[in-house]
Amino acid sequence: NQRLVGSYAEAIQKTRASFSKLAIGIGLAFGAVRRIGSAISGSIEAFRIQEQAVAKSNLVFGDYSKEIQNAASETQKLTTVGDESFISLAAQLKNLGIAQEDVIDLTNGVIGLAEKYTTVGLSQEQAAKGVANAMQGNFSTLERYIPELRTAGSETEKMAILQRNMADGFDQAKNAAQTG
Predict the structure, then answer these.
(1) For 62-87, what is each residue's pLDDT tens digit?
(2) CA–CA–CA angle 169, 175, 180 (5° rounding)
(3) 37-67 CB burial, b ≥16 within 10 A, e <16
(4) CA-CA 20 to 30 A from 43: which of 3, 10, 25, 130?
């Protein structure tokens, strides 16, 4: 009888150990399923945002929309700016009165200005407003962020300063993407 009690105790111990391993395995499986679910949810959300950006581009630019989307994809490859952000900025510029054929270059310029002057609080949206105003001869929005504009003598000089800063900033944005 002593032998039987010992083997039952041993069997119970082995069963407990098996259940413990099983519980750990189930816990790991649930954790993996949760992570997969989160990844799928993130992908669905990214797809939804992308679809909204394309719809916005089609609505604002019509036949020119494909060029905007291609430029957005190219900019995304070069910088950390997502194509949905590019499309949104391009639409903002168009709605602020920028000619359709100038939107792509100026959107990259806006991205550059925001990159270069982000430390002084210039957002992409503010940069877009400032660039749209500057294209109409009003540099006051950007003078708060680009001190050189305050001391420039003529509108031509201000435009040259703005263009240089947009180009320098876009180079910064490309470099940040490569090193970051």
Answers:
(1) 899 999 999 999 999 999 999 999 99
(2) 120
(3) eeeeeeeeeeeeeeeebbebbbebbeebbeb
(4) 25
The answer to whether residues 111 and 79 touch, using CB atoms and an 8 Å cutoff, is yes
**pLDDT reading at 46 higher than 90:** no
**Which of the four pLDDT bands, split at 50, 70 and 90, describes residue 13?**
confident
Give the list of residues 6+ apart from residue 114 with CB closer than 8 angstroms, or none. 122, 123, 124, 126, 127, 169
Largest CA distance in the chain: 107
Nearest Cα to 89, choosing from 119, 63, 114? 114
Compute the distance between CA of residue 171 and CA of residue 177 in angstroms, rounded to an integer.
10
